[in-house]
Amino acid sequence: MQVALLCGGLGTRLGEETVNRPKPMVEIGGKPILWHIMRFYRQFGHDSFVLCAGYKQEVIKDFFLNYDNYSNDLRIDFASSSVSLLGGERDRIDWKVVIQDTGEATLTAARLKRALRHIEGDIFMATYGDGLCDVDLDQLRTHHETSGKLATVTAVRPSSRFGELGLDGDSVTSFEEKPQTGKGWINGGFFVLHRSIFERLPDDPNLTLEADVLQPLAREGQLSVFRHDGFWQCMDTPREKHLLENYWKAGRAPWKVWA
Fold it and tell me: What count of other Cβ atoms lies within 10 Å of the Cβ of residue 46?
């Protein structure tokens, strides 16, 4: 199943991190968060991606055009104009990637509508280019197929801004740093979508996925929910970037399901 990733936003709340690059190219552990998302999908067998780019889309294109060169040591022979990869060709990938310039000011639903030209089947997966989780994508797909609805959204519990204390009288019995709150459900992305949803939309760059697609589908009874109680974290602010970076550096990134 193909995966469409929303990669075109400005990411202004990340400040200087997105002055020269789009938010999905902000790095966690030395790799763009976009790379982490794609590695996650690939582990479940999804290797064909449509990147709905916009703001600073040339940065995404440069990264993938030069992926092998950036990921390995090089031997350059100027006399013969040859370049050889050294170091065992680390981090090789086998993905098929379409990078589509869907417009700098285009909103989310319009980006996905424009991506349909590169979507081959009736059903595809999609998510935002700034969020990580450990959802079981196989279970998500099965849930969607059995629901009989046009779309499925993954519902997640947001993480707390603060550490959570377990108390017994005047004693602290446990301390969990920034856990999932367990209070309410929010849209966590990681969608399964039918292309007809977007085919019926007008060609309007101001259409959003949330207001112009998900809300009408909910009213029509065509939006299914897949509840995910595990890890989920978006990267909207520097604090959230540092949180994800700390997970990675500590060797306990929940989304790292690959070896």
Answer: 18
